[in-house]
Amino acid sequence: MPDSGPRIAPGGRREIGLLNAVVVRVAGAVIGREVPHVFTTLARHRGLFRRWLLFAGGLMPGGTLPREETELAILRVARNSGCDYEWDHHERIGRRAGLTAAEVERVRAEPTPGEAWAPRRALVLRAADALHADGVIDDALWDELAQRFDDRELIELCLLIGHYEMLAMTLNSLRVQLDPPPRGGAGLRDRLRLLSGRDGGR
Q1: What are the φ/ψ torsions at residue 23 (nearest 5 degrees)?
Q2: Which of 87, 98, 144, 196 is deepest in the core (most CB within 10 A)?
Q3: Could you tell me the pLDDT band of residue 29, with boundaries at 50, 70 and 90?
Q4: pLDDT value for 182
Q5: Shortest CA distance to 111 belongs to which of 136, 132, 96, 83?
Q6: Distance CA 140, CA 160 (A)
Q7: Phi and psi, residue 22, nearest 5°
Q8: Is the dihedral of CA 86, 94, 36, 58 positive or negative?
Q9: Buried b (16+ CB within 10 A) or exposed e, 5-32
Q10: How far is it, in rounded angstroms, from Cα 106 to Cα 109?
Q11: What whole-number percentage of the chain has pLDDT above 70?
Q12: What pLDDT, on the 0 to 100 scale, is given for residue 27?
């Protein structure tokens, strides 16, 4: 992504409205960033922002897939799409969800998932690669996925990858700038701990 300013600047309360300003604060607390640029930018489209956030929250952190697998998928999308903003957020969130530093680095470095990955995790990465490259999971890969994922997980995995591809394209096109580093402290750790559990029920 070009090193230049945002095409649409993050909005303040006047641009995004009082309700969205409150929503942004709450959502930022959940992900550990005080006023995330992704939210203050998208919230300039006031009604659409709230509808999008409800859907996005149903996938992360409210999905049924294990949190580590969700974060692997998002990180692979960020890597494939060259979305620095998405990577910056989910590298940190992924570590809190249980991914090791070595696993996070392998998501970025490996052009194809290597043999060191557990079978389900390798399939998550391969699904992200297939949808990015071709827009579809072919029959051979689908058959492998169906042996290890139930129907709900398969639906969610496709929607998860597709959503973060869409978000990456939007972030890259709007040139949303990286957020300042999060503040440390117990409060932040407590907020991020929410993301490491499986909040959605089966």
Answers
A1: -60, -40
A2: 87
A3: confident
A4: 67
A5: 132
A6: 20
A7: -70, -45
A8: positive
A9: eeeeebbeeebbbeebbebbeebbeebb
A10: 5
A11: 88
A12: 82
Asked whether residue 63 carries a pLDDT value surpassing 70, the answer given is yes
Q: pLDDT by residue (tens digit) across 103-121? A: 999 999 999 998 999 999 9
The answer to whether 97 and 75 have CB atoms below 8 angstroms apart is: no
Backbone angles phi, psi at 107, to 5 degrees: -55, -40
Taking the model in full, what pTM does it have? 0.87
Q: What is the mean pLDDT of residues 25-32?
A: 80
Radius of gyration (Cα) for the chain, nearest Å?
A: 17
